[in-house]
Amino acid sequence: MFELDKNNFESEILQSEEPVLVDFYGNGCVPCEALKPHILKLEEEYGDRLRFTALNTSGARRLAIGQRILGLPVIAIYQGGVKVEELIKDDATPEAVEAMIKKYI
Predict the structure, then answer these.
(1) At 2, which helix (H) or strand (E)?
(2) How many CA atoms lie within 13 A of 47 on its CB side?
(3) Which CATH number fits domain 2-104: 3.40.30.10, 2.170.120.12, 3.40.190.170, 3.90.1010.10?
(4) Whether the Cβ atoms of residue 77 and residue 42 lie closer than 8 Å to each other
(5) What is the pLDDT of residue 4?
(6) Residue 95: what pLDDT?
(7) pLDDT at 30
């Protein structure tokens, strides 16, 4: 999974024409850590058709707020540089994430 930061988010996500999944997580976020192995498994299955990335919001708070990430975890799909769908907090289940991925591949 490609690790994003405030310096490469624009070039990797906002300037990408291809659909990209962004896993927004934070230090000490227990639900984020619980979801991570499922996201990595989904990357193994769908990574050839969808780019998987992650952003630690603990080091990029302004960027996260600018993307309207106000709670964690958030799994979002960006397409053409625009956030087209996201799953927030309790909605970000492994099953829901996989269903969302299938819409964009």
Answers:
(1) strand 2-4
(2) 12
(3) 3.40.30.10
(4) no
(5) 98
(6) 97
(7) 96
Residue 75: CB partners within 8 Å, gap ≥ 6?
A: 21, 22, 23, 24, 35, 39, 86, 87, 92, 97, 100
DSSP secondary structure letters along 14-62: IT--S-EEEEEE-TT-HHHHHHHHHHHHHHHHHTTTSEEEEEEGGG-HH
CA distance linking residue 64 with residue 77, whole number of Å: 14
Residues of the chain with pLDDT under 50: none
CB-based contacts of 8, cutoff 8 Å, min separation 6: none
Instruction: Enumerate the β-bridge partners of residue 88.
Output: 74
63-83 pLDDT tens trace: 999 999 989 999 999 999 999
Separation CA 63–CA 38 (nearest Å): 25
3-state secondary structure of 95: helix
